[in-house]
Specification:
single chain; three-stranded antiparallel sheet; 8 strands; 41% helix; globular
Length: 165
């Protein structure tokens, strides 16, 4: 049975334990052994970090919730886990609720953006560059991970196709 690490900000939600059980059940029902950070007994920052790294190292793939969390971008811990997995040549399937791109995300969370003709780029209200590659997440995640629109089930189905085609 292939092992999948479940990355995402779901561990921070008020119903984290319920979500973890639902996610693990979904993985098991589709032939994957879930490696979930919520299963760790660690309670220090260093302990949690080391436990999660060990789980990722055991994984055959990572399923990552890349939905915006506390802002326009995915959870920073999840982004780290994706990068770590990619560096170890572990396939990553990132899932997002629906079609979007960075420009729409920035508008949603931070207000209007505008195209600066002189610089030939999109800028936010702070005059910071807004990526325009048509990706739903920052290019470092959007290029390195395989992205699907939907929930964890959509990511599992995609992973099945990736592993067994």
């Amino acid at each position: 049975m292939k092992k999948v690490y479940l990355a995402g900000p779901d561990v921070f939600f008020h119903d984290a334990a319920l979500r973890a059980e639902q996610h693990k059940t979904l993985c098991l029902s589709h032939g994957f052994e879930p490696l979930h950070p919520a299963d760790s007994i660690e309670n220090t920052a260093t302990g949690i970090y080391q436990a999660n790294i060990q789980l990722i190292q055991q994984a055959d793939a990572v399923l990552a919730n890349l939905n915006a969390f506390r802002g326009a971008e995915p959870d920073s811990g999840t982004a780290f886990e994706v990068g770590y997995a990619i560096a170890r040549n572990i396939p990553v399937i990132g899932y997002l609720d629906g079609p979007t791109d960075i420009k729409e995300q920035v508008k949603k969370y931070y207000g209007p953006i505008y195209f600066d003709e002189s610089k030939q780029m999109w800028l936010d209200q702070n005059e910071s560059l807004v990526e325009d590659f048509g990706l739903p997440v920052n290019l470092m995640l959007g290029v390195s991970a395989q992205l699907v629109f939907g929930d964890l089930l959509a990511a599992i189905v995609h992973l099945q196709g990736h592993l067994y085609d």
